[in-house]
Amino acid sequence: MNRKMIAGIVAGWVGLAAPAWAAGHSATVTLDGDWYLQAGQVVNHSAPGILVTGLVYAMGAQEDGVAVWEDYLSDGRREDRLPGSSTHYSSQVWTGLQLEHHATWTFDGLDLDRIVHAATGEVDSQNLDYGGTSLRHAYVEVHFSDGFSGRAWLEQTGWDVGQVLVIGDAVPAVPEPASALMLMAGLGLVAGVRYRTGRTA
Fold first, then answer.
1. What is the mean pLDDT of residues 150-165?
2. 37: three-class secondary structure by DSSP
């Protein structure tokens, strides 16, 4: 048996025995750069029975140059008000979602500005960030029906660039017994071929 055949056998058995990744909690949040990250969608990729129940879309710590939300049309709850401003806040929170396995939920109506002076609450509502430094504290956080939550930080790219953020965990499944036996048998066969080849070479 030549080396190519041996390599093929090993690849086949390893492929059968490689652990499949079983999604426990998993969601994808897509932020729409065409709408300057002010709209997006959430897709629940979790195992059946695990729902997405909430989303936090936050700009994080308030400091000069950091992005901040302005009161606009979006539903949900507005948290972390910017001191000195009656119209700006840092966290948009949605609760009470019941997003099932493979279901999609969309959001919009947000208005993104940038803090000029955090101490006084001065905000620039006309200046877009094409470099991304204003997103240095920004994140999305997804909450699941069994109490698990996961967070992903935004990339520091311009507001006109879409972002896809993956949140969750993955647990390697135990290989099926038949696959494990096939792997052991295959390794034994290859070891025997190598031994015989070594003796006759």
1. 97
2. coil
Is the alpha carbon torsion for 181, 187, 190, 192 positive or negative?
negative
pLDDT digits (tens, 9 = 90+) for 112-126: 999 999 999 999 988
Start-to-end Cα distance in the chain: 13
What is the model's pLDDT at position 23? 56
For the segment 24-33, the average pLDDT, to the nearest whole number, is: 96
Residue 146: closest CA among 58, 44, 22, 19: 44
Handedness of CA 154, 128, 65, 118 (dihedral sign): negative
Q: Provide the mean pLDDT of the chain.
A: 81
Cα 50 versus chain centre, distance: 16
- Retrieve residue 24's tokens: 């426990």
- Residue 10, pLDDT > 50, answer no
Query: Cα 107 vs. chain centroid, distance in angstroms?
Result: 17
* Amino acid found at 127: N
pLDDT at 14 over 70: no
C-alpha–C-alpha distance, residues 115 and 68, integer Å: 6
Q: Measured between alpha carbons, how far is residue 133 from residues 12, 55, 139 in Å? A: 47, 23, 13
Would you say 97 and 52 are in contact if contact means Cβ atoms under 8 Å apart?
yes
